[in-house]
Amino acid sequence: MVAQAAVGTRDNQGLPFAIVDKKRARVFIYGARGALQGVSPVLLGLARGDDSVPGIGERKMSEIRPEERTTPAGRFNSEPGVNLQGEDIVWLDYDAAVSMHRVRTNNKKEQRLERLASARPEDHRISYGCVNVPAGFYDAHVKPLFGNAPGVIYVLPENKSAREYFKFMPDAGR
Q1: Distances (CA, A) of 88 to 6, 16, 134
Q2: Cα–chain-centroid distance for residue 109?
Q3: DSSP secondary structure string, 49-98?
Q4: Distance between CA atoms of 166 and 88, rounded to whole angstroms?
């Protein structure tokens, strides 16, 4: 429904777009005209919630408490970028330091690949707020559409209605 409304109202501005469904821990990638290009499980922020903590992007990761590790909901104009390690990423919210990137597996205790494979959405909650996707999916779908040019990323809320974040959505009563 969000994809149809985004294209129908031209909210995606003729750009490729993605929809991150936090409740199902999935990302759906669409071309500029709304054709589905790919679907993948994702890892999301450890904490439930729809808003970033003010000033979180200016803090060191070691200073971020578990309850502050949210993936914010909303409409984001994505931009290709690079992180501090020189890896290509797609920025959702630069000021809040939220991006979409390949899943990192350097901390074996976190079992990120196992979490991605789990059918239980609650197992997918571990990141500091970034949207982590499998490396192969990133290279095949995210990087070609969002890694070299702007796009739009819609992150669905988990506590509020989609209409509160996406004014282009039709009213439920229509």
Answers
A1: 27, 18, 14
A2: 23
A3: -SSPPTTGGGS-GGG--GGG-B---EEEEEEEEE-TTS-EEEEEETTTTE
A4: 28
Q: State pLDDT tens for residues 88-123.
A: 999 999 988 899 999 988 888 989 999 999 999 999
Cα distance between residue 147 and residue 166, in whole Å: 24
Give me the pLDDT at residue 173, please. 46
CA geometry: angle at 19 spanning 119 and 98, to 5°?
A: 90
What is the C-alpha to C-alpha distance for residues 60 and 88, in angstroms, rounded to an integer? 20
Q: How many whole angstroms separate alpha carbon 172 and alpha carbon 152?
A: 24
Low-confidence residues of the chain: pLDDT under 70: 172-174
Neighbours of 12 (CB within 10 A): 23
Helix, strand, coil percent values for the chain (each to nearest 5): 25, 30, 45
| Three-state helix/strand/coil letters over 125-153 | EEECCCEEECHHHHHHHHHHHHCCCCEEE
Q: What is the rounded CA–CA span in Å between residue 91 and residue 99?
A: 4
| pTM, two decimal places | 0.93
